[in-house]
């Protein structure tokens, strides 16, 4: 493996909260030195004064294997991730069938390793078939490499079953990822209730459903002592509960999606199904509250919540259309909107995009220091472009940013010291 | 006369001037419809397809009659019982129809926004005959015409819209239209049937029907849409009738010359007293049906003119 010496870079260090000009040396898959001399025989790469940050660790990526390979394969997801600066995909288990046995987990692990230029780690289902009744073989699945346990968007309504799963997970130190939502209240909803939903005549859910789901989950975490991460916090009403849980010392973290940080309910406009999400897009007040919560660190992680959907599942009336968007390749330029708006600086952004997700999953990635894995992204936050969805590497092209002006381009991506993408 | 729209998808896209244009033309069609010989040839040679994904008798009959009186070739597709059941998507059905070169497509669908989606895929004029809980523009227009003929104007009136507002596309289209024409709008409903955020549309909200009706010029009743409810919006029909059903006692709170409207079909004894509905001094419910045909003729006439002009321009552009 060749040693790479990246010079003339603005180095983003999320842990130290700094941006400094210098060089980074990559050797044997690790960051060998920062601002060190060029080793003999090393290949020098001039970063041209652009920014170099730890590659993003994206919790909650849906890949269509097994079951929906026509929407996204490990190969296409891996290529999209490399082009997007995501160096670790943390895949969701809401596949067909669900990843709920060590055998299925081994299958996807093998498929992913063969096909993807970036790292892919896997989450497993918390309950069998994601049905919310019986817990999966959490111990075996941990041994087989599961980094977290989640039923994705399927909310366990059986509170007793969930409390047992949390208790069992705690004994093994397993991380449980919940989707905070009161399913009775959000049943059938396609938008957030309010003026816009009423005007469009769409079934809607009150933002309070998220807080109710979070309150329940946090109460169970208090009872069981489990390690818990909320996949997406999207409304201001959930924040006090999250704050209290953290202050009380519960082992709780929370994430949000890039779409809930950059879009709001009005973007749905004339029933545009590419703007349909689970949970639905919120009001502008909620969006701003989420941005601030990321800036202050109350919300720990930002995910793409990459969800491929083909044309057939989107070209339907809004209520019937599939929810979700592909986002591996738009994660960075979308995040740059927060930077350009002056809401969040680059080290804080990469804390939420790279460092915190890796830490929460117990992965060594996300750091910019000697000894850390050499997973890096080189990008120009100012490069402008107009998004054309048909240029995406994902098999599915359902991005809400189609046709929009964006700023921020990934120039190169490195995984384990090897360049896997060059613009 | 001003009417620029290519489709009639909702009241939201219409300007006050366009609304007035439709109503003025509809007035002339009312006169035509009262003659013995009702035929006109403004749509002659054109093909109108009525595509109703939801069952409908009244609206479909009204559109069919409107098209036939204007001389169009009218075809009814009862899609509710055909290929959609075989799994064909809305877009595929639309593309199939589009290939038959219709000029006017009248569509009703159970999902909000479905007609907008369909309109973006076809080359003809699309009329929304009701989409989910979103809009039912011809109903709002026929209501406006009925009000204008009864009250002499469609401005500065106090209109009370009462009943199942949450599930009603009629209520949405009406409150947009009445708002555009600068009327005072009151919404009367139990809180479970009042959609969120409607106070921001410039309406006054009432839970108490008598207070809401005080001084109203127009009382617009809505049908309780039992088929759209997934249970538990009201405790019972008799309690609903007691609190929100229109009877002579509650109507006494409105102005003495207030008119009573209902889009039909009525649930007598649920939202409206049967005798009151038939009272020719107060109820304009039958006139609404009559105005419906005239308004639909006016809408199709105007859309057809725009369609001809558009096709003419397209043809001129390719001519040397």
From TrEMBL, chain A:
According to its UniProt record, this protein's enzyme class is hydrolase
Q: Name one GO biological process term.
A: purine nucleobase catabolic process
> What does the UniProt keyword field contain?
Hydrolase, Pyrimidine biosynthesis
Cellular component GO terms, alphabetical = cytoplasm
Q: What is its EC number?
A: 3.5.2.3
Q: Does the keyword Kinase apply?
A: no
The record ties this protein, via Pfam families, to: DHOase (PF12890)
Q: Which domain of life is it from?
A: Bacteria
The record places domain Dihydroorotase catalytic at: 50-235
Q: Which NCBIfam families match?
A: pyrC_multi
Which PANTHER family does its entry note? ALLANTOINASE
Specify the protein name.
Dihydroorotase
In which organism is this protein found? Paragemmobacter straminiformis
TrEMBL record, chain B:
Q: Which InterPro entries match?
A: Asp/Orn_carbamoyltranf_P-bd (IPR006132), Asp/Orn_carbamoylTrfase (IPR006130), Asp/Orn_carbamoylTrfase_sf (IPR036901), Asp_carbamoyltransf (IPR002082), Asp_carbamoyltransf_Asp/Orn-bd (IPR006131)
Q: Which NCBIfam families match?
A: asp_carb_tr, PRK00856.1
Quote the function comment for this protein.
Reversibly catalyzes the transfer of the carbamoyl group from carbamoyl phosphate (CP) to the N(epsilon) atom of ornithine (ORN) to produce L-citrulline.
- Spell out the family assignment given in the record's similarity comment: Belongs to the aspartate/ornithine carbamoyltransferase superfamily. ATCase family.
Q: Which residues bind L-aspartate?
A: 86, 169, 223
What HAMAP family does the entry give? Asp_carb_tr (MF_00001)
Q: Which organism is it from?
A: Paragemmobacter straminiformis
UniProt-listed SUPFAM superfamilies: Aspartate/ornithine carbamoyltransferase (SSF53671)
Instruction: Using the record's annotation, list all stretches that form the Aspartate/ornithine carbamoyltransferase carbamoyl-P binding domain.
Output: 6-148
Subunit structure as annotated in this protein's UniProt entry: Heterododecamer (2C3:3R2) of six catalytic PyrB chains organized as two trimers (C3), and six regulatory PyrI chains organized as three dimers (R2).
Protein name stated in the entry: Aspartate carbamoyltransferase
Q: Residues that bind carbamoyl phosphate, according to the entry?
A: 58-59, 108, 136, 139, 264-265
Q: Which GO terms describe its biological process?
A: 'de novo' pyrimidine nucleobase biosynthetic process; 'de novo' UMP biosynthetic process; amino acid metabolic process
The top EC class, named as a word, is transferase
User: Any idea where the Aspartate/ornithine carbamoyltransferase Asp/Orn-binding domain is?
Assistant: 157-302
Enumerate the PANTHER family for this protein. ASPARTATE CARBAMOYLTRANSFERASE, ORNITHINE CARBAMOYLTRANSFERASE, MITOCHONDRIAL
Name the pathway: Pyrimidine metabolism; UMP biosynthesis via de novo pathway; (S)-dihydroorotate from bicarbonate: step 2/3
State the Gene Ontology terms under molecular function: amino acid binding; aspartate carbamoyltransferase activity
Q: Which Pfam families match?
A: OTCace, OTCace_N
Q: Which reaction does it catalyse?
A: carbamoyl phosphate + L-aspartate = N-carbamoyl-L-aspartate + phosphate + H(+)
For this UniProt record, the keywords arranged alphabetically read as follows: Pyrimidine biosynthesis, Transferase
Q: What is its EC number?
A: 2.1.3.2
Please give an example of a GO cellular component term from this record.
cytosol
